[in-house]
Amino acid sequence: MLNIRSYNLGPLQTNAYLLTGADPGRGVIIDPGANPAALLRAAQGMEIEAVLLTHAHFDHIAGLDEIRRAKKCPVYLHTLESEWLENPKLNGSLMWPDATPAITTEPAEYDLADGQVLKLLGLTFRVMHTPGHSPGSVSFLCGNDLFSGDVLFKLGVGRTDLPGGRERDLIDSIRNKLYRLDEEVRVFPGHGPRTTIGFERQRNPYVPML
User: Fold this and answer.
1) Where do the Metallo-beta-lactamase domain residues begin and end (predicted)?
2) Domain layout of the chain by residue ranges
3) Residue 192 to residues 3, 109, 138: CA-CA distances in angstroms?
4) Among 85, 102, 84, 105, which residue's Cα sits nearest to residue 94?
């Protein structure tokens, strides 16, 4: 069973997640935002098997260096954004100087691709390529828990006006991939409260079911 703890980090209130399975001494982190002290305290004494990035916008990677230094853990990111960690123009940190310094960090150790299966924490994580908010956006499905990054929110969707964003791709990702999951799947987004696939199918005003 997956245990999920959420931490609201940085000026854009990004949701970072600390996941554990049957062994409480082993964890996975998703999207470490800025000022991750609370996240690191929760992970103290824990071996972090991986940092999974739903995408490489600055608010989802701002705490990555601190996590890497403390935990010496590998990072996973979709190949379409492989250059973004090193490039503050691509990761958007140059666009909001009032919110963040320019962010550069080392490349990810592992590439992600659609349909890939990761074995972490003794559990299976399926990688779903869900572009639209950014070209390399992915969602991670573990059992009935989905980590959707900035693709699908409660009663909302990710913006598509940033570099590499495309509204048509976002709608396709939600309607033809995420909405095809079971309605009881819980959605843990990159911002805001959690929701379910069934709720969004029925209520989301931006991507109604056809």
Assistant:
1) 13-191
2) 3-203
3) 19, 29, 18
4) 102
Position 203: which residue type?
Answer: R
For 31, phi and psi rounded to 5 degrees? 55, 70
Q: Alpha-carbon distance 129 to 116, whole Å? A: 9
CATH code 1.20.120.1200 for 3-203: no
pLDDT at 163 over 90: no
Q: Are 104 and 36 in contact (CB under 8 A)?
A: no
Q: Report how far apart, in Å, the C-alpha atoms of 63 and of each of 21, 54, 84, 109, 181 are.
A: 23, 14, 15, 16, 31
Q: Are 112 and 80 in contact (CB under 8 A)?
A: no
| Residue spans of beta strands (DSSP E) within 14-67 | 14-20, 26-30, 47-52
pLDDT tier for residue 209 given thresholds of 50, 70 and 90? confident
Residue pair 180/172 in contact (Cβ under 8 Å)? The answer is no
Residue with tokens 């805001």: 192
pLDDT, tens digit (0-9, with 9 covering 90-100), for 91-115: 999 988 888 999 999 999 999 999 9
The residue with tokens 């696939």 is: 197
The torsion angle over the Cα atoms of residues 44, 91, 54 and 150, rounded to 10 degrees, is 110
Q: What is the pTM of this model?
A: 0.97
